[in-house]
Amino acid sequence: AGWFERYIEAEHAAVDGVCIYSAKTLKPFLWSEVPAKWSDTEGSRRVAGEATEFGIWSGFAVPMLSVHHWQSVLSFASSAKSCILSPRHQVQLVTMAVYAGMSIQALSNDEDGEDEGPLTDREKEVLLWAAAGKTSSETSQILGLTERTVKWHSMQAREAFGVATTTQAVIEAVRRRLIHP
∠ CA(17), CA(109), CA(180), 5° rounding? Predict the structure, then answer.
C-alpha cells in the first residue's frame, strides 16, 4: 500500500501537525512552518517519521474553506529534505489547489450553479486586478475607488460563485470565461 492508504488506515489526520494546523489557518504554508505546539507532538513526529519511509520529507499545504464550511487541505509532498519554493511557485501551487478543491466541491454539489447571474463589469474589473496580484488597496488606487468599495465588489463576486476567497472567485471567473487575465 502507498502512503495515502497508510495515512487513512492509521487515521493520521487526528495527530498530524500539518493537518491540524491547516484547520486553524487559511494561509498556505510549508510543512516546516507548522508551529511547534502541533509539529512537536509525539503523534506528529510519528507521522513525519512514517512518511520518510515513503520518501516524503517536506511539503507545502494549501488549506481551503468553502462558503458552505466545507474544509479541506491539499498538501504537496516533496522528497527534498527541505522544501524551498519561490513565491511564484507557491502561487502556482495555490492556484492548482484552489481549482482542484472547487472542482471537487462542484462534483459534490446537487446544483451546478452555472445558471447564476453574471458578474457586473465592476466585479469583473476588480477580479482582473486581483488576478494581476493587486491588493484591495492597490486596486482602489488604480480604479479611483475606496478600498471599502473594492472589497464590496470582491465580496459580491465571491457570493455570486458561492466561494470563500477572492482567489477562488478569480479562478471561477476564468473557468467560466467571464474574465481573461
Answer: 85
